[in-house]
Design brief:
By secondary structure, the protein is α/β, with parallel strands linked by helices. The chain contains nine helices and 15 strands. The strands form three sheets. Strands 5-4-6-7-1-8-15-14-9-10-12 form an eleven-stranded mixed beta sheet, with helices on both faces.
Length: 359
């Protein structure tokens, strides 16, 4: 089976526009989360500045910016017919619904054109696991021999439509989120774009080993009380994991009451309670279609630096299983990590990253 490596990364976030700057923000606990009064109810979010932006689509603009950075780092010419594009997003241009074609396919085509790509883009929109599912799609495109390189871009901007949807579910917090904490009371929306170039050429030490998407079909918005989908995604990966080199599990960690509990149960069932766990949404908020890619990029840098990053907002364990949530930064010699995500409709995903490309 073809090995797949990450050969380029790019990010656009409220706390930094390079992976290194974002990593430092997480390391020091610097977040852009703040209270916004727009709409009928206030909410806490991490939003990008629109200063100086006058284009038709802010969503497409940040996606292109992150993609260009990843392509530049990978040294790729985007017009090459052996370079593919996968776009991950949940809502895309929904805020422009009354003005233009907001279909995700149309957005992907415009992003591809702005990048000068000659190949047809693929869109992955699978609730909050979209970024992880898009990385898996890119891996399959490489392993099928369709492309030599695949650019995977995830982006999300917040809108009245998205925020009011979360508000209707009483899922938003009026304070910065507290993943896995006893006082957690909801999530914070976030905006970001993140991109990875995947390649079969080992120009980078970071390998995307394999991953799985499992749907437990529990409920349209509620996670499984037994962690069924998340556990089954982890179960698929466990035979591939070198436990002695597993640095941490970077969880979804939305700080909603039921999601964090579900992930704790899944980790327990998978026999991973002894492995450090961290969540990054206390820094970024929930960046939705960008989350799987952005949080994976930061996690790769953490392993490079030999640290398990802290979980901002966490102080007292508030789930039923004794998960080893990192309240402070801790050292690690591990060279592997697992990225977990879950989403509405019972979707769950897990992806194993390994540095060095060999056990």
């Amino acid at each position: 089976m073809t090995k797949v490596y990450c050969t380029g990364c790019g990010v656009v976030t409220p706390v930094g526009d390079t992976p290194e700057a974002v990593f430092q923000a997480v390391r020091t606990g610097r977040s852009a989360l703040r209270l916004y009064q727009a709409g009928p109810e206030p909410y806490v979010a991490s939003l990008l500045s629109r200063e100086g932006f006058d284009g038709p689509s802010f969503f497409e603009d940040i996606a292109v910016k992150a993609a260009r950075k990843a392509l530049e780092q990978a040294g790729l010419e985007p017009s090459c017919p052996r370079v593919g594009l996968v776009l991950s997003t949940i809502k895309g241009n929904v805020e422009l619904l009354d003005r233009e074609d907001v279909s995700l396919a149309a957005s992907a085509a415009r992003i591809a054109a702005a990048l000068g790509m000659s190949t047809p883009p693929v869109v992955v929109s699978n609730a909050c696991i979209s970024g992880l599912a898009a990385l898996l799609q890119g891996m399959r495109m490489l392993r099928d021999g369709a492309y030599d390189h695949v650019l995977v871009v995830g982006a999300e901007v917040q809108s009245r439509f998205i925020v009011s949807g979360f508000q209707s579910l009483k899922a938003l917090s009026l304070q910065p989120s507290k993943p896995f904490d006893a006082a957690r009371d909801g999530l914070n929306p976030g905006e970001a774009a993140a991109a990875m170039v995947l390649s079969g050429e080992k120009k980078s030490p970071w390998e995307l080993v394999d991953g799985a998407v499992r749907n437990d079909a529990n409920h349209i918005s509620g996670p499984s009380r037994t962690g069924e989908g998340s556990y089954n995604a982890l179960k698929y990966l466990l035979p591939l994991v070198n436990r002695e080199k597993l640095a941490f599990v970077n969880v979804h960690g939305t700080a909603t009451l039921y999601n964090d509990e579900m992930e704790a149960i899944a980790l327990d069932r998978a026999g991973l309670l002894d492995v450090p766990v961290n969540a990054l949404k206390g820094i970024f908020g929930h960046t939705m279609g960008a989350a799987g890619i952005l949080e994976s990029i930061v996690s790769m840098l953490a392993c490079d630096k030999g640290v398990v990053l802290p979980t901002r907002g966490f102080s007292e364990l508030g789930v039923s299983r004794p998960v080893r949530v990192s309240a402070q930064e801790m050292p690690t010699q591990g060279s592997e990590f697992i990225k977990l995500l879950s989403g509405f409709g019972g979707v769950n995903g897990a992806l194993l990253f390994r540095k060095g490309g060999a056990q």
